[in-house]
Specification:
- The complex is a heterodimer of chains A (171) and B (129).
- Chain A is an all-alpha fold and 171 residues long.
- Chain A contains seven helices and no strands.
- By secondary structure, chain B is an all-alpha fold.
- Chain B has one domain.
- In chain B, helix 3 runs antiparallel to helix 4.
- Chain B is flat, with a radius of gyration of 17 Å.
- The N and C termini of chain B lie close together (12 Å).
- Classes of the chains: A mainly alpha (171), B mainly alpha (129).
- Chain A: Belongs to the UPF0220 family.
Chain lengths: 171, 129
């Protein structure tokens, strides 16, 4: 890796181990699950008897989460090695370019989902001035989208920390 | 070796029984049978890892698709494990089940999952010999 000569501080040794990589992937799954169930919690709470207000969770509240999950799926489906293909001979007929376009779409969907979460929060909860127990539904929407973003960051980092030699030893 | 294995099996089955007892009690005491979902979650949790490890060919270093399939399995397992925690908390937050039922089902689920995991590790050690 060329970037190791660029920075003064190197990645610590334990970060390259297969153990750290696998636990990163597990943690990403856990974070995504947390995001989904935070949103599900707001939906269940909205339909339960505790919700005294008229505000209910509808499909609109789920839409930002769907977009950010879609973005996460796209981002993590792209082969990372194709991205850093500097030589034209390796990347063939513009594979790196295609990868960049697809990755851009993925990041756009992820950021759009987060922005959509903020939009729903502002338009549906903050501006009409929903009372506080009902406000939880809006806050949970924000938290869920942030957790999806965090989960995709963790998954991205832990997939990039793979190192061929550590890999050979473990498998 | 055989005696230790027998003791481990007895201890594990005891822990599994205690876990099931806690979960079933958390359902039956409050007449709300939603916490039984926790058992299904924790029983299903190792399944994605198991399936994906059979699908992937770990000797294949050239194509990284094998590692991707393994990662998918790990991701799903992490999802299911957190689901086992999150489901009772959601149900308790909306007052569908009582808070003591939530605590009991989470602890019972952890005992069941721990039994499954340690059982798997135990058998893997056996295979190495």
């Amino acid at each position: 890796m060329a970037e190791e000569h660029l920075w003064k501080f190197r990645k610590p040794e334990w970060l390259n181990s297969v153990w750290a990589r696998n636990s990163g992937v597990y943690a990403a799954g856990g974070l995504f699950s947390l995001a989904f169930y935070v949103l599900l919690d707001s939906a269940v709470w909205s339909k339960s008897a505790l919700n005294a207000s008229d505000v209910h969770v509808t499909f609109v509240d789920w839409l930002p989460f769907i977009f950010s999950s879609l973005g996460m799926l796209i981002i993590n489906s792209v082969e990372k090695q194709r991205l850093s293909a500097d030589s034209f001979s390796y990347s063939g007929s513009g594979v790196a370019w295609k990868a960049r376009v697809v990755l851009f779409l993925g990041f756009a969907a992820l950021a759009g989902g987060m922005a959509g979460g903020v939009t729903v929060f502002v338009l549906k909860f903050a501006v009409p001035g929903v009372e506080w127990p009902g406000m939880t539904m809006g806050v949970e929407n924000l938290v869920a989208n942030a957790l999806v973003g965090l989960s995709s960051v963790v998954l991205w980092v832990s997939q990039n920390m793979e190192d061929e030699y550590a890999y050979n030893l473990a498998l | 070796m055989a005696a230790a294995g027998l003791k481990t099996i007895i201890a594990l089955s005891f822990v599994l029984a205690v876990g099931f007892l806690l979960v079933i009690l958390s359902c039956a005491l409050w007449k709300a049978y939603y916490p039984l979902l926790v058992v299904a979650t924790y029983v299903l949790a190792p399944v994605p890892n198991w399936i994906c490890s059979h699908l992937a060919n770990p000797d294949d270093f050239v194509e990284s698709s094998g590692a991707a399939v393994l990662d998918l399995g790990r991701f799903c397992t992490g999802f299911l494990v957190v689901m086992g925690f999150a489901l009772p908390i959601i149900l308790a937050h909306s007052h569908i089940i009582a808070v003591p039922a939530m605590v009991m089902s989470v602890i019972g689920g952890l005992l069941i999952y721990g039994t499954i995991i340690s059982f798997g590790m135990f058998f893997q050690e056996e295979q190495e010999f």
